[in-house]
Automatic annotation (TrEMBL):
One of its GO terms (biological process) is phosphorelay signal transduction system. Pfam families: Response_reg (PF00072). The lineage of its organism: Bacteria, Pseudomonadati, Pseudomonadota, Alphaproteobacteria, Hyphomicrobiales. This is Response regulator receiver domain-containing protein. InterPro entries: Bact_response_regulator, CheY-like_superfamily, Sig_transdc_resp-reg_receiver. It comes from the Bacteria.
Amino acid sequence: MRKHQTSAPLPLTDTLSPSIPLDQIGRTLASFYDNLVSEGMPEHLAALVRRVRQTEADEAAQENSTVAPAAETHPRVALVVEDDREIRALAETLLEETELDVVGCDSAEAALAVLQARGGDVALVFADIRLAGQMDGLQLARAVATLWPRARLVVTSGHDLPRPELPREAVFIAKPWRPLDVLVEAERAAAEPAPPVL
């Protein structure tokens, strides 16, 4: 009866040839694959080899990457709510100079629709008190302060407004507003971190 001897496993390079490193063997096999492709290989085998190569390339890229891949991010938004078309266009043009995307609305109802769709992306709400539609800017400001508290809230009006009517978080800028004042608020809104995605 023949006895089988067990011994310690040999290093990987010794199982093939002690003098040929594994990376050289891999390069040789890759060149064989290239020759096979040029001579013609059954499509299902070629697809399998391509998939293996792609997986290896993806793993290598992931190992070589020093920066973790960033999650897909949506641009932050400045929402301008103003029923006067010329003033709204002026505010939109001004805010386009910031890093925020600008969306204009003429009513609180339209602004709420934008907030419902993109509320997590809205960094700034710049709203007049008098608006087209059923709701005014104060009602919109209260809704924003309650439902989207991470958005910076700036309210404007050509009329004096008693402070108690405004939400505590809101900033009031009287009309005619200065472009610098609006830009300062936009920069503050853009500087605040976006709320986490839940």
